[in-house]
Amino acid sequence: MADSPKKREVTEAPEFFERLLTIADEAVVAAEPERGIILFNHGAERIFGYQASEVLGQPLESLIPTRFRDSHAAKAEEFANGEESSRLMGRRSEVFGLRKDGEEFPAEASIAHFQMDGRRIFAAILRDLTRREEREEDLRRTVKEKDVLLREIHHRVKNNLQVISSLLSLQARAMKEPLVRRALEDSQGRVQSMALIHEQLYNSGDLAQVDFAGYVRQLSGGLFRSFGADPTKIELKLDLEDVTLAIDKAVPCGLIVNELISNALKYAFSDGNSGTLCISNSVMPDHTMTLTIADDGPGIPPEVGLWNTPTLGLRLVRMLARQLDGEVSLAGPPGASFCIRFAIEPPGAESA
């Protein structure tokens, strides 16, 4: 359908296009190789700091930093001889403008060339990215400051937990009753397992995710030394997949590992018994993790089991599994094999 005369009158009026150039926030600049700059809108005046009368007739390169002028002239010639009539010319880190006061600024420019009445014309629409760069720099600085603060928090939490652990150790040594001393030592071990998580976070590049395999290796080694386990009699087998856990998952999971390793060292291999303690994990495609801690000791008596145990350690395991929104099961005797299954964050996802 042909345009109506009224429509053509509106859209073809020079005043219409002049108004568009006036209200445009971006710089719109046009130049001819022979005559220099022939168009310099209000947006260009605001961005570059020149009045249009100051730059009309000047070469386009006068708006470009000296160090980029030679390469710009070569690119412009290549661009003019190419098949494309317009394109986005460079990213913001590759395009710079030069203000009247000599300040360079990052920009994003869309460049076009065309023929009009036999004249070759270059036109550019340029956006000043200075504020965006400043905002990004502010954001980078803020993130860095938060990382430093979070790292310091992990460091202080670790130190405070170590102080609590030392106090529990001192209190345990002062106790004459073996049961009370053992209870205090168990509590000390739980505190140390939490302190280890914060130590890992403090020393890692990711302040929100714990390397689970590395954590279990450190924790199990520390518990074996704490209990004085003889490695020639008790073999520790680790079959651990690389997986990271958010801190809200890592803490209860670490406490579970601490309880079950301690339980095995206290009961499964008491009286110098030999055997094997196996710790493994596997991650399923549905983003659930199965953690298995098994020993080949005599096992937990059927009349005790997991759900009617009088011991605090196994009650804690059940409570912590619920905190993980997971499930815990026990197989044996012979031996005792604990299996805890719970959901984890998909790789790359942010923890809530």
Write the layout of secondary structure elements.
Elements (H helix, E strand, L loop, with lengths): L4 H7 L2 H10 L3 E6 L3 E5 L1 H7 L3 H4 L10 H15 L5 E3 L7 E3 L5 E13 L2 E10 L1 H45 L3 H26 L5 E3 H15 L7 E6 L4 E3 H22 L6 E9 L4 E8 L16 H12 L3 E5 L4 E8 L9
Parallel strand pairs: 8-10
Antiparallel strand pairs: 1-2, 1-6, 3-5, 4-5, 5-6, 7-9, 10-11, 11-13, 12-13
Characterize this entry briefly:
This protein is an alpha+beta fold. It has helices spanning 5-11, 14-23, 42-48, 52-55, 66-80, 130-174, 178-203, 212-226, 247-268, 312-323, and strands at residues 27-32, 36-40, 86-88, 96-98, 104-116, 119-128, 209-211, 234-239, 244-246, 275-283, 288-295, 327-331, 336-343.
Report on this model:
- This protein has 352 residues and is α+β, with helices and mostly antiparallel strands.
- It has three domains: 18-128, PAS domain (Beta-Lactamase, 2-Layer Sandwich); 133-207; 215-352, Histidine kinase-like ATPase, C-terminal domain (Heat Shock Protein 90), CATH 3.30.565.
- Helices cover 46% and strands 23% of the residues.
- It contains ten helices and 13 strands.
- It has helices at 5-11, 14-23, 42-48, 52-55, 66-80, 130-174, 178-203, 212-226, 247-268, 312-323, and strands spanning 27-32, 36-40, 86-88, 96-98, 104-116, 119-128, 209-211, 234-239, 244-246, 275-283, 288-295, 327-331, 336-343.
- The strands form three sheets. Strands 1, 2, 3, 4, 5 and 6 form a six-stranded antiparallel beta sheet that branches. Strands 8-10-11-13-12 form a five-stranded mixed beta sheet, covered by helices on one side.
- Strand 5 (104-116) and strand 6 form a beta hairpin.
- Helix 6 (130-174) packs antiparallel against helix 7 (178-203), helix 7 (178-203) runs antiparallel to helix 8 and helix 8 runs parallel beside helix 9.
- The longest helix is centred in the middle third of the chain and has 45 residues, at 130-174.
- The model is unreliable at 5-11 and 84-93 (pLDDT under 50).
